[in-house]
Amino acid sequence: MIFVTVGSIHFDTLIQTLDAAIGRGEVEGEVIMQIGNGTYVPKHCEHFRTAPGLAPYYERAALVVGHGGTGTTLEVLERGLRLISVSNPSMIDNHQHEFLDALERKGLLRYCRVLTELPAYIRQSLQGPPARSFSTNLFFRKVVDDLEAL
Asked: I need a surface site. Which of 25, 65, 109, 131 has the fewest CB within 10 A?
């Protein structure tokens, strides 16, 4: 199963682009989308707005497509799940770009910068090996060390 999450905000362009790709047969298999406060409602897959927790969806997911939020990204990585992140350009100063770029350079996720390329990213990710998990405690310790070095 592919699980798509946008968190508590909205990211209609991600949801709409992926829903259209499912409709065209470019993305196959079960897809469940968490659409948050978005206005676009998917036509080609199961969806919901919010849930008390996303653990049941993560447990079933072979791949997660995430909105680039720090909490979601770290939660998925700590679980050792394959992750494709998409930066939401509507966020203030597009801060997600630098965060996702750094994690991609470390080999922890795939960062899809162009939404039309997302179906290809999904196919490639599902064919590749599972992600390696890591401790978010170590990640935050490294961030603090780097900040103190400034």
From this structure: 25
- Sort 109 into a burial class: Cβ within 10 Å, 0-12 / 13-18 / 19+: buried
Q: How far apart are CA 39 and CA 125, in angstroms?
A: 28
42 close to 32: Cβ distance less than 8 angstroms: no
Q: How many domains does the chain have?
A: 1
3-state secondary structure at position 4: strand
Q: What's the rounded Cα separation, in Å, for the pair 4 and 15?
A: 8
pTM over 0.90: no
DSSP assignments along 98-132, one per residue = HHHHHHHHTTS-EE--SGGGHHHHHHHHHHSPPPP
Alpha helices in the chain (DSSP H): 12-23, 55-60, 70-78, 96-105, 118-127, 136-148
Q: What is the CATH number of the domain that holds 110?
A: 3.40.50.2000
Amino acid at position 148, single letter: E
- Reading the block at residue 39, the tokens are 């206005």
Chain segment 82-94, per-residue pLDDT in tens: 999 998 776 666 6
